[in-house]
Structure formats: C-alpha cells, structure tokens
Design goal:
mainly alpha; globular
Length: 509
C-alpha cells in the first residue's frame, strides 16, 4: 500500500468514460470552475515572467540606474525568476506525494510573501539606498520559487482531473493562461510612464504596485477557493490512500450514474499491474528521458531568441515598433487559443513534428531577412517572426506541458520542468553573447538544433491522443525491466538524476 501511495497515485480513472457520448456524463460547470482555480498558477507564471519589463523605466528612475546599471539589474531580475523556479521545481517533485493541493498552497505562500516585498517598494532613502534593491531582488526570487511550484503541479493537476476526451483541450489551457498574462502585462506597460516622461507622480502610484503584487492577490483568491469550494485533491492522488475520498472526487466530476466503485477498482488494478512489473525507473526510464528532452526542446526551438531580437528590428521601422510588438503579442495569444481545438484532433506527436518543421522555416526565414534595411526585407522579417510565433504557440508551447503530464509520474514531473528552466536560463544568458559574436548566424544555429530535435521527435516520441494516463506511460515501458524490487533504489535514481543535471549544466557552460 505504501508503495502505491508514493509512486503509483497517477493512474487515471477515465477508462470508465467509454460511453457513446462521454461529454454528457461530465459535470462541466464544476469541472470548468475547478480548472479555472488551478489555472491561476499558470496566470501567475506568465505574469511574473513578463511584469518586470513593463515597469523597468520606473525602476530606472527610482534607483537612478545609468544605462550600464540598467542592463545589469534588468538581466539580474529577469534571471532571478527562472533560477528560483529551477530550485523549487525539484522540491515540488518530492512534495507531490503529499498531494497536489499541498504544492499549490506552498506556491501560493511564496507568491503572497513575494508580493508583499514588491508592493512596499519605494524610492530609496539616501540613508538606506540599497534597501529597495534588496526588497526587489528578494521579491522576484520568491516569485520565481512560486512559479517553479506552479509550473510543476499545474499541468499534472489538470491532467488528473480531465476526462480523456478533454485532456488535450484542458491541458493546452496552461499555456493559454501564460500567454494571456504576458499580453496583459504588455497592455499594462502602455499606461505606465515611458522613458523621458515625467514619472515622479508614479512613485507611489497604485497601478504599478498592483501590477507587481497581482500574483500574490490571485494566490490568495486561489487558496480561499480551494479551501471553501474545491476541497478535494485529484481522484488519482487518493487512489490507494482513501477509497471514500477517491470516489467522492469522482462523483464531483461525473454524474451520479457513473460507477465510481468500478472506476476505483480499475485504478487500483492498473496500479498493481504496473508496480508488480518491477522498478519504476527500470521500466519507464525511456519516458523519463523523453520527458527531459521534450522540456529542453521547447526552449531550443528558439522562441526566446526570436522574442529577444525581433524588437530590435522593429525599432528600426520608423514608428511601427509599438504596433508590431502588439501584433506579435496578439498572435502569441490567439494561436494559443487555436491549440485548444487541435491537440485532441490532430494528436500530440503530429503537432510537435509540424511545429518543429514550422519553427525551422521561421528561423531560416529570419536568418535570411534580419540584416536587410529596406522595407521589403522588414516586411519579410516581420512575416517570419509572426509565422514562427504562431507555429510555436500551436505546438511546442502548449503541447510540451500537456505531454509531460501524460507520460511522467507526478514525482518525476519536477525533473522535466527543471530541465526546461535550465535551458531557459542558458538560452536567456547566451542569446546576447550569440548575437554579439554570431550575429544573424544565431538563427542558423537554432535552425540546425531544430532539425536535430525534429529527428528526435520522429524517432522517440509516441502519440498519446485519446489514451489514458496509464496507457501513455505503458507505451514507453521496457519489456525486460529488472525485477530487483518494487521501487528504484535511491542511490540509482539520484545517480541518474545527477547525471542528467550535470549534463545540462555543462551544456549551459
């Protein structure tokens, strides 16, 4: 029982939804409300990733940063969030065994405390000039820790409450809320002062402080709703621990005529079969490595270098910079909405392959057009950027999170998310260096990386559309897995983890 409690609370119950019209058997109102509360974590994720850019000129004025100082502090504060997220995503893997709600409550705690630090920021007193900077860095780090917990638990939680026929749609909502938050912070930047404007009046302005503290406010709302309305964890978490709560959680999602008892027995039966097959890592190590790779590939698509360099080219287009940036943001959001209707129809692997090919085309087009100075070159560069963003948001953006939640056990999810954050940090720190020395050839480098990534997806990634969580994992099961125990030895698992992390860290060097 304890083995199932720790390692196998992941089998989905949705085999019971094999009726001709399963949609009628779902309590859609309750499910959408539950999903919305969980997705507050996704909203906070996107908001914390982009809010600093909207407020950067305020900080330049408040702390008297010169141009060189501004670049340093902007780089530092943009790095603090992924660094904090990297650490907490690994911790989240351990906390998952205590429940998805526990991880969300921990994430909310750090978000609320971080919001307090950011909300009290003031122009520094001459006697204590570094206090404000310390509060800013502490607040951003705490927000990053919160993001790490949210980015680990949210895709898993969504997958575990979603019926099979809605897994793709609901799973894509994670990326949708991330991009929605990014768009909202972009619009917030329009009502905040710009460089050269009189901004003294904004020092104690309520708008920008609310913007910095917004994730903490949303976390409070999330905690209150989960304590008052959505009081149960996912059915999969309770399986093997509390039969009554597991069935109660099922009846919250499905109508009363569903046989929850039968569903619970199917969960336990499926878990028993997997546990008795041998060591989890020995049996499912292919899924573990594929998950690590898919998370890394999401960042190696080149989305960050496109978003980094495109504004520099936009600035050269005589008054069109703000409009083009706005179009890029709207495309980012609109095509994420499109992905909601594609994952369950076209399949995860198909979208990853099609998206990779699209990214290759977009990156190579950027390489060919980014150095031109005529209107024709600008036009084709803009089209290439918009095309790339649209393709990414219909494929690697949402599908990565969805696919990880389907093929990985929840206590492995944090390692894949950590892989994503490591490569996020690597790409963010290396991009200015690459553009300085390789210039437009940076696009060519990422084009080659995407070609290799496409080959990997074609060869190793398996389709999960329409399959239960257990079936998704079983596709990666090794036939000759060892029978040396029911769980992987701690030293073996930690050793493999260290090998993975060391490889990633050496890559980033």
């Amino acid at each position: 029982m304890c083995i199932r409690d720790r390692y196998m609370g992941y089998q989905q119950v949705w085999k019971m939804t094999q009726s001709p019209n399963p949609a009628k058997e779902v309590r859609m109102g309750y499910l959408v409300g539950y999903l919305s509360v969980i997705l507050i974590g996704s909203l906070n994720f996107g908001w914390n990733a982009s809010i600093f850019g909207a407020c950067q000129f305020l900080f330049e004025w408040m702390y008297g940063w010169k141009e060189s100082d501004s670049a340093f502090w902007r780089s530092l504060n943009n790095t603090l969030v992924p660094v904090g997220a990297l650490v907490s995503s690994l911790i989240a893997s351990k906390l998952m065994m205590y429940g998805r709600r526990v991880v969300i409550f921990v994430a909310a705690f750090f978000s609320i405390i971080g919001a307090i630090f950011l909300a009290v920021l003031q122009r520094p007193n001459p006697q204590t000039p570094t206090t404000g900077l310390a509060f800013l860095c502490i607040g951003r780090t705490l927000m990053g820790i919160s993001v790490g917990f949210y980015s680990t638990v949210t895709p898993t939680y969504i997958n575990e409450i979603s019926p099979v026929h809605l897994t793709g749609t609901f799973g894509s909502c994670h990326q949708l809320l991330i991009t929605f938050a990014i768009v909202m912070t972009y619009f917030l930047g329009f009502i905040l002062p710009k460089k050269g404007e009189k901004i003294e009046v904004y020092q104690n302005n309520f708008t920008w402080k609310m913007g910095m503290a917004f994730p903490g406010i949303m976390s409070i709302i999330q905690v209150l709703l989960m304590m008052a309305v959505y009081t149960l964890d996912s059915p999969s978490y309770y399986c093997g621990k509390d039969e009554e709560k597991s069935q109660t959680a099922l009846f919250k999602i499905y109508v009363q005529n569903m046989d929850a008892k039968d569903a619970y027995e199917k969960m336990v039966s499926g878990q028993k079969k997997s546990v008795l097959s041998g060591s989890l890592y020995s049996k499912y190590k292919t899924a573990f490595w594929v998950g690590i790779a898919i998370a890394a590939i999401q960042q190696l698509t080149g989305i960050n270098i496109v978003m980094y360099y495109a504004p520099e080219v936009f600035k050269n287009q005589e008054g069109w910079a703000a409009t083009l940036s706005l179009i890029a943001m709207l495309i980012n959001f609109v095509f994420t909405i499109a992905s909601l209707f594609m994952a369950d129809r076209l399949g995860r692997k198909f979208l990853l392959i099609a998206g990779s090919i699209g990214c290759i085309i977009g990156l190579f087009a950027c390489y060919l057009t980014c150095t031109g100075t005529t209107k024709v070159y600008y036009l084709f560069f803009n089209i290439a950027v918009f095309f790339f963003i649209a393709v990414f948001e219909m494929s690697h953006g949402p599908i990565c999170w969805l696919y990880l939640s389907e093929i990985l056990f929840s206590n492995w999810m944090g390692y894949a998310v950590a892989s994503s954050w490591i490569f996020t940090i690597f790409v963010s720190l290396s991009t200015p260096f690459l553009f300085l020395h390789l210039k437009q050839n940076t696009y060519l480098l990422y084009t080659v990386l995407m070609v290799l990534s496409t080959v990997f997806i074609v060869v190793f990634v398996k389709e999960t559309k329409g399959k239960t969580s257990e079936d998704c994992k079983e596709q990666y099961a090794s036939e000759g897995s060892s029978q040396d125990g029911l769980v992987p030895k701690t030293s073996q698992f930690n050793g493999n983890l260290m090998i993975i992390l060391n490889c990633l860290l050496y890559t980033s060097d």
